[in-house]
Amino acid sequence: MASVGPVIDENLPDTDARPQQPDWVDLVNRIQRDDPQAMEELYQVFTRGMRYYLCRQLGPQDLDDRVHDCFLIVAQAIRRGELREPERLMGFARTIVRRQIAGHIDSAVTNRRQQVDLDTSAPVPDGGMNPEAAAMNRQQEQLAVSVLKAISRRDREILTRFYLDEQSQEQICQDMSLTETQFRLLKSRAKARFGELGKRRLSRRNVPVY
Amino acid sequence: MEATFEDHCTDDALELYALGRLGGKHTEALEEHLLICEPCRERLDETDIFVRAMKGAAARLRLEQKTESFAARVARAFQVPAFPVWAASAACLCIIAVSAVRLQQPAPAGASIAVSLHAERGASQTVAAHHPLVLSLDARGLSLGKSAHIVLVNAGGTTLEQADVAPDNDQVHARFSRPLDPGDYFVRICRPGDADPLREFALRAQ
Known about the structure:
The complex is a heterodimer.
Chain A: E1 8-9, H1 24-32, H2 36-58, H3 63-79, H4 89-114, E2 122-126, H5 131-149, H6 153-163, H7 169-176, H8 180-205
Helix pairs in contact in A: 1-2, 2-3, 2-4, 3-4, 5-8
Chain B: E1 8-9, H1 11-18, H2 24-36, H3 38-77, H4 85-104, E2 113-121, E3 126-127, E4 133-138, E5 148-154, E6 159-165, E7 171-176, E8 183-190, E9 197-205
Parallel strand pairs in B: 2-4, 3-9
Antiparallel strand pairs in B: 4-7, 5-6, 5-8, 8-9
Helix pairs in contact in B: 1-3, 3-4
């Protein structure tokens, strides 16, 4: 696995966007006292994140049911006093969501084994990409091609090693005689250029905003 | 560093997470934070788009580079110094043109390939191009009745082939005789007479 610096950084911009921190211990206590407002607060805090994570891992099918199941498990565990460390409520919620995902994958694998496949058949799962999404993917890829073609061969080699060949930053810096700063600068410039080209394309098409 | 509610995910961590290369301990902290932070979820979506685009672009450019190198090597191998420069140049151009045409010609269609499509989320799977397909489509939960309409479309949404078939328990089987060129395709299950798909599967031929 690649080594990485801090995962969470208090110095990142958009401080105005930082949410208020709930008092987890207080929230858990209030839920255990059957406070309906506390339950509503729990719902507001977690369900959007649960939905995002479940959709990302399992797709949009049956998403509402899965989110509902995860939320119920968390809420019921709190009510029954099964949460030993209320301050670790986030970690507990994450564990529940991951178990839900693992359970779904296990049952999908079991179902697949029990099906009769044709000889020489290769299972092809539903990738969930409709024609519009595929077209958008291609456009974004074309933007990235433009970004890569506009930089030197060496810089292109560096980015290809990182994004396609899955080499680590450390390995690339060592092989290509780069400092960490130079590597990060190259990546951030490529990302900025990608964003610029994307915005330029959107403005040319006069995409309406609703 | 332990995740706290006030702080946000770093760009590096989001990128490694999008690439599937973030370590276990860091993944835990990041995922906990993503559960409760909308701005970081939005940043992860943007990172996903960028990472996916860069991967695809890098792969495409690498393939183009290999193709050019082969043509250039062929041209060099057939160069004859005693000829006049204009003749040698013309010969090289002809060789490159022939090589490029041959590289772009599709291979002749091969034997049919049987493919089973399941209604599960996952990375887009690939099949070999230039082969007709015999498809088994997962129709669980669709309540099709006696007949289903199967449509094969290309990435632009143009219908390439279609067929009416009888469901076989929770599957429908369809044979498409048209060999697929490399690219992205979609197979749709519809009710007869209804253009709206009930289910859609993605295929990549390469």
